[in-house]
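Posting for a labmate who doesn't have an account.
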Amino acid sequence: MKHAISILFLLTLAAYASAQPDPREMQSELLIFEAPAVEIFTTDNGIKVVFLENHELPVVRLTMYFPGGGYYDQTLQVGLSEITASLLRSGGAGNKSAEQVDEALDFLGASISSGDEADRLTISMRTLKKDFAEVFAIMADILTAPLFDSAKLEIEKSNRIDRIRRQFDSPTGATRHLFYKTVYDGHGYGNYPTITSVNAINQSLVKSQYKGKYKPNNCYLAISGDLSLDEIKQALSERLGKWSGPDVTDQTQKPLPPAKPGIYYAKKDISQTSFRLGHRVSLFHNDDRHAARIMNYALGVGFTSRLTTKIRSEAGLAYSVGSYFVRRQMGGVFFSFCQSRADATGQALDMILEIITNVHENGITEKEFKDSKEAILNSFVFEYETPHQIAEQVASDLLYGFAENQTELDLEALKAVTWKDCNRTAAEYLHPDSFVIVVVGDTARFDKPLSSFGKVNTLSLEIEE
């Protein structure tokens, strides 16, 4: 009887399964993205403000963006932007020492942070509505009257030097570092702090950096939360109305030197291999960025992409693999990455080059196009889940010279992309013959010599003093 029941169960299960649609053939309904309207205005002293009122929670969030960042650091002062940005928050402000600022924010359960990215500076704040006036006063002091405490400066420098000494500990971190340094050789995006450049930073340089970058006419401010427009305008007038400074005039684009394609190898005694390969490509304000995004989704994003399916799932040659277009204001890159067993290095690299070359020459399939386009369009809903994400995106778009409604324009542009557009961008923006290929690992364990891919240039993992 047990066998009869088991057979009946299996037959029932099989019948149920056969009646269900194949998940690979299922079509999802396109999610609708509608961004709420934001208020945009400019203060008398030049701050560009994006405000999104929202009363769901008694919380206020704020983010400031400034053009700047590590891209603009002088060669002998690389690290100055990052240290200045960190010290802005950690070095005390107004009539409060660094410790007093920390204590006040801890008591209120609020947060203020500051930092730098490749080509922009940021300051962020989060607080409950009831504490907004007090926390914003601290924020205004940090922005307009930083103390840049000398003891805190030495701590910031020491922390940065510690990170420099450990920057090659991770194989993937080492590969990323060497790739950008090589593909952006002689360019601001390829500069990394050294122990010497960090040690050269002093209070005078920090103050000069602050005065040259953190100015109201240089500020793009995103605010969201449980406040009215009148309350925001009053707070800005009271706390930042007298903030002033000269116009920023040094945000000039540096010319890109020619790239140097080839094989670059750094020896690391590990049983795995990490490599990254790609080239520079300019898609920041380029309308082709939408088609390139869809094309690359099919090529190397997610578990169903061609790189992941063929190299990781089917061939079992990689722990992780994929590809990206990195859009940067002064020149972006396309790159593919892979972590493989050392004895599968050659096979994995061969397959990546073969797959990218095939997409460059023949494009993606119509099914890959449809699936990728649908996935990206549906992702819009989840990229802007909170009011502050929306406000931040609008402020960021304004900072980089895009339209106030760029998110909606991007969505419409993505909807208009065709299969032909994607395959044209594959032909125009993927150039395997121009790849910088950076490999970190132990050649003694490789399944084939790197020289079979071309002339090998040796890179060092020694920490540059």
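Reply:
Got it, the structure tokens are right above this. Residues 1-24 have pLDDT under 50 and may be disordered.
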